[in-house]
Amino acid sequence: MLPRRGNKYGLGYGAILKFAFPSGEADFITMETGVKLFFEKESTSYGVGYIPVKVGYKYTFNREGTGIYAEPQLGFNVYGAESYYDNAEGNVDIKFNGVVGGAAFGFLFQPDRAGRQIDLATYIESFSSKKASGVSIGLRFTYNFTVGGSRY
């Protein structure tokens, strides 16, 4: 995940809270936050975690609010931390924050009668600061539901 130390990180996981507000008939303005964690391949004692806050625009290509979509996002990493072992320094802990951006490409299934909708996507996300930078690529399964007439 962090280029200066090579590809030492394995699969990661996270928990995301996302809101989507309709912007016309088929598109959505999105707001997202959560936590993402990646551990070193050789040790679960060390890794990277960060908390991005992003806004985005989900554009559905069929102009019906379903089907294939693209969603560019931009925001700020409010907190990040990396922990690793260095032979010369021992345990190293770095805290960072900075700009985060990304894009998701996915498929929105037709909502059921209650307004619930499945969203499958792949995404790429990049963060950068003076102390750290990295890129993550992932798969996302989302279960959208309706509150007050709007899909979230």
What does this protein look like?
The chain has no helices and nine strands. It is mostly beta strands and 152 residues long. The strands form two sheets. It has a seven-stranded antiparallel sheet, with no helix packed on it. A two-stranded antiparallel sheet has the order 8-9. A hairpin with a 6-residue loop joins strand 3 (47-60) and strand 4 (67-86). The chain is elongated. Mean pLDDT is 85; it is low at 1-5.
Key terms for this structure?
single chain; 152 residues; mainly beta; seven-stranded antiparallel sheet; two-stranded antiparallel ribbon; 9 strands; 0% helix; elongated
Q: Give the strand content.
A: over 45%
Rg for CA atoms: 17 Å
Overall pLDDT confidence: 85
Uncertain ranges? 1-5
Topology:
Elements: E1 9-22, E2 27-40, E3 47-60, E4 67-86, E5 90-108, E6 117-128, E7 133-144, E8 146-147, E9 150-151
Antiparallel strand pairs: 1-2, 2-3, 3-4, 4-5, 5-6, 6-7, 8-9
In short, what is this structure?
The protein is an all-beta fold.
